[in-house]
Specification:
binds magnesium ion, 28 strands, 6-stranded mixed sheet, binds adenosine monophosphate, alpha/beta
């Protein structure tokens, strides 16, 4: 049986980034850049004023000094005047610094009269001037390939006048639910039927990271039905199936995948929940066979599928950061597998992370996952954690809202 780490490592080693495409700046937001971004211009573009006020020569200034005004430069204005010794020029924020000036005196530190200004205090060389290139110099490598383009990175690209960006193509992920007992959401209920929630949960998780979900619906627990749907699924970049991978007498998922040319890399991971998870490759395409239980399907997506999809979309950071968090209540652990415990994550009065079990850890209990903000990792060889013990935890999904 694979360990948690072995399974994650093998999965991310097995997949490669998809082709690069050039997209409009805003379509790149939230995606990873496929190239290093190198500054083509200085920022600021030119020396400019950081305040509304007066451009002066610092050495001319002092409390009570009166300087005649030589002109006015609005933001976006042309410089058609200079600051000769003993004079000043009125200037707005963002306007270019006129020749001769080496400081800006903000309005608040002056008294203005027609055609002259009285300086009220001391002025230092460089005061309130934003120098050309003080932020970024041409040739600086500002964003590394694989970084997510957040609003700040988009701002930078926009500042360089870059309207198109190279990113990796969005991965198309086919999602197939399997099971004779499954019904779609809007079907008339038949006795013993289970509503297919996995397709929706997995599609939402796929979308959350900027990938594209292709809904294949439900395959029945027979070889023909599985074969037909899986064949469609293998047209996408990635195939995710749920259910039919345990040791049940109609669990044909792995068998039919093998028939279709999927080379199984592993089956079963030493974790709880999610043990029956299988992973294979069909040429370049990864195929994930997740357990049917909705909680197990979502947790195994989070732990094993998500990093692979991110790598395919060119992300540099594939795994979520693990935080250290203090357990608030003791935990007894039943299985000798790594337990992925659903936890409520909160901050104590010092702002330090604290966790408690989010509820019944039985995989049949969906509510516990809804109440959870994180997954804590409980070591296979431990059977007990005491209150106050420190555990590793990562946050779920894209959640930023913590518990109370
Ligand atoms: P299996 O892996 O086929 O043994 O399924 C495990 C459990 O998950 C069973 O109770 C199934 O009814 C349930 N299940 C399987 N697929 C889905 C699905 N798509 N949506 C909701 N529940 C499911
Ligand atoms: Mg089944």
């Amino acid at each position: 049986m694979f360990t948690y780490d072995q399974a994650r490592d093998l999965i991310v080693e097995s997949v490669q980034p998809l082709a690069v495409e050039k997209v409009a700046l805003l379509d790149a937001a939230g995606r990873a850049t496929a190239e290093d971004i190198v500054a083509n211009l200085p920022l600021p573009l030119f020396d400019n004023s950081a305040m509304d006020g007066y451009a002066v020569r610092a050495e001319d200034c002092g409390s009570g000094v009166v300087l005649p005004l030589q002109g006015y430069i609005p933001a976006g204005g042309k410089v058609d005047c200079a600051v000769a010794p003993g004079t000043a020029v009125k200037i707005m924020t963002g306007a270019p610094i006129p020749p001769g000036a080496d400081a800006i005196v903000p309005f608040e530190e002056t008294e203005e009269a027609p055609d002259k200004v009285t300086i009220l205090g001391k002025v230092k060389k460089g005061d309130h001037i934003r120098w050309q290139g003080e932020d970024i110099k041409p040739g600086d490598r500002i964003i590394e390939a694989g970084s997510v383009l957040r609003p700040a990175e988009i701002s930078l690209l926009a500042s360089f006048g870059m309207s198109m960006v190279n990113v990796h193509r969005r991965v198309r992920v086919a999602i197939l639910s399997t099971g004779d007992e499954l019904q779609e959401l809007d079907e008339v209920r038949s006795e013993g039927a289970i509503i297919n929630s996995n397709s929706w949960a997995l599609a939402a998780a796929v979308r959350e990271i900027g990938a594209e979900a292709v809904m294949l619906g439900i395959a029945r627990d027979d070889r023909e039905s599985l074969r037909e749907k899986m064949r469609d699924g293998l047209q996408a970049d990635v195939l995710i199936t749920s259910a039919g991978v345990s040791a049940g007498d109609r669990d044909y998922v792995r068998e039919v995948l093998a028939e279709l040319g999927v080379e199984q890399k592993f089956w079963k991971i030493n974790i709880k929940p999610g043990k029956p998870t299988a992973f294979g490759m069909c040429g370049e395409k990864p195929v994930f066979s997740l357990p049917g239980n909705p909680v197990s399907a979502m947790i195994t997506f989070e732990e094993f599928v998500r990093p692979a999809l991110l790598k395919m979309m060119g992300h540099r950071t594939l795994f979520k950061p693990l935080f250290k968090a203090r357990l608030q209540q003791p935990v007894k652990k039943k299985y000798d597998r790594l337990q992925l415990m659903r936890v409520v994550v909160a901050l104590d009065e010092n702002g330090e992370m604290i966790i408690t079990s989010a509820g019944d850890q039985n995989t049949g209990i969906l509510r516990t996952l809804i109440d959870a903000q994180g997954i804590a990792l409980l070591a296979p060889d431990r059977d007990y954690y005491a209150a106050g013990d420190t555990l590793e935890v990562h946050l779920l999904g894209a959640a930023t809202e913590l518990g109370h």
